[in-house]
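hi! just following up on the protien thing from before. the input was this:
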Amino acid sequence: MDGPDDRSGATAAARSGDLAAFDQLMRRHERMVLVTALRLLGSLHDAQDASQEVFLKLYRNRAKVEASGNLPGWLYRVTVNACHDLRRRRPASVPMEEAGELPSRADDPAEQSAREERRRVLELSLRMLPEKERAALVLRDLEGLTTGEVARALGSSEATVRSQVSKARVKVREFVERYFRRHV
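and the predicted 3d structure came back as:
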C-alpha cells in the first residue's frame, strides 16, 4: 500500500493493524471512491454502499495489498468491481444525485441553472452507456486517469480502453446533441 500517496507512513501503520492510521488512510481516499462510485451507479445511497464495501475490502486485505503498489489504482479497480457487483444485486431505482461542491451564493442564477442542466444531461447520458464503456469513460475523462491506469483498473488492454472511451464519447455527444435539439 505504500507509494506516492503515502505522505505520513499511515499506509504502513494501517497495514500492521493501526486503526487510527487506517482511518486516516480511508479519509484521504474516501471522496475519490465515493465520487467514482456515484458516477458509476448514479445513486448516492448505492455509492455509499459501494464505498463501504471498498473500504471493508481494503481493511480485510490491508496486509496483502502490494507494498510497492499503487493504492489509488487498487481502490479504483475495487470500486469499479464493487459497483458492478452492487448493480447486479439490485436494480437502479434512484435518480442520479450530485456529489460535489455546493454552488456559490454569488453564482448567477441563469449560469447555475445552465450548469445544473448540463450536469443532469451528462448524468443521463452516462446511464445510457453499457457498463464497461461507462466505467472506462468515468475513469478516463471524469477521474482523469491515464489510459494505462484505466486498463489496469478494469483488467483490460489499453487498446480496449481507448476503444471503449471513444465509443462512449460518441454516444454521449450524440445523446447530448439530441437532448438539446429537443429541449431548446
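The chain is about 70% helix and 0% strand.
Helices lie at 10-15, 19-41, 44-60, 71-89, 109-128, 131-142, 147-154, 158-183.
cheers
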